[in-house]
Amino acid sequence: MDMKLQRIGVVVLALALVTSVAAPVSAAPSAGSLRDEIDAVVADGAPSSTLEFRDGSRVERLASGVVELGRSRPAPVDGRFRIGSVTKTFTSTVALQLVGEGRISLDDSVERWLPGTVPNGGNITLRQLLNHTSGLYNYTDDTLVTPEQVVRDRYKRWTPRQLVTLATSRDPLFPPGTAWSYSNTNYVLIGLVIERVTGRSLGAEIDRRIVGPLGLWDTEVPGNSVWITGPHAHGYVQVDGAPVDITAMNVSSSYAVGDIISTTRDLNTFYAALLGGRLLKPAQLAAMKTTAFDSGYGLGLSKVALPCGAEIWGHTGGIPGYLTFSFHQPETGRYFSLSATTYAVVPDVALFNALTAAFCPAGTPAGSSDRLPAIV
Predict the structure, then answer these.
(1) pTM of the model
(2) What CATH topology corresponds to 3-359?
(3) Which of 8, 22, 36, 116 is most buried (most C-beta within 10 Å)?
């Protein structure tokens, strides 16, 4: 996660903290309004953006901007992109499936499955990893922090154990279970637990449990491959006032945390299956939607209350070059996924306006600096 995304993740968490209210029934947005909103994302600084919005049987797929800076080829509607921390919902889903199968418990300690890996691991539970109440230091606060670091280390290979070592070399933020703080370290450890329990790689488990059964053919866990294959727009970081194409990148530093590549269509299909009860048993889905403290964060799933009172579930994602919003309202049949490529400016308010337009009545006041979901 680069410096701009970390800043947003810290500063604009306020929306996720809004107390839940009953979601009003609102008219579906018009195609014109969503077109205006996605164009605004590009006008506010994104080289490109693509979205899919489902409202019952109605499906809109839109794209704006260009594939590459300095060229005129339009961004593809079906483009693939790095989804960043939306990956956490996939990782959590696999972990909760294992809970439903009786192979692990949310109350198991980290020490039970990863002995000697984490200091005080006997007092940290898997639930506390999944809902970010472990207190463990966030290793990405020390990696890929600046654009210069991103470019310098773009092809560096990391192992999950190296990432954990980075985190555990720092003091914990608080005793386990006493507070909430978003830490990517938590999901590295969950990925290692999944591999320990199943005897297979996390990517293999995501493929056989989610990608294959749902037919998410444009979704992959790239491992050490640096490429985004198929149609896609390019992402950038700004170094010395100029754009550097960061599309090709080894994202092993985001193992289990943010390494998946997907499309807006596949993300909507995934969340429709998840929130519709097709991937988890009722008890595990309820646990996923049980939020910790006042964070609005459950187990790999965020609850957001929009200005109109609509309550939606999903996740944001930020990784160098790409931003993702994927939020949903299964009771109304509305599913919204949007990807934007980045360069010098994060179009955060325009992104939130697009989200508001999808779920709120026309004319609802939307974006401001203190009403945005965290891009994490």
Answers:
(1) 0.93
(2) Beta-lactamase (3.40.710)
(3) 8
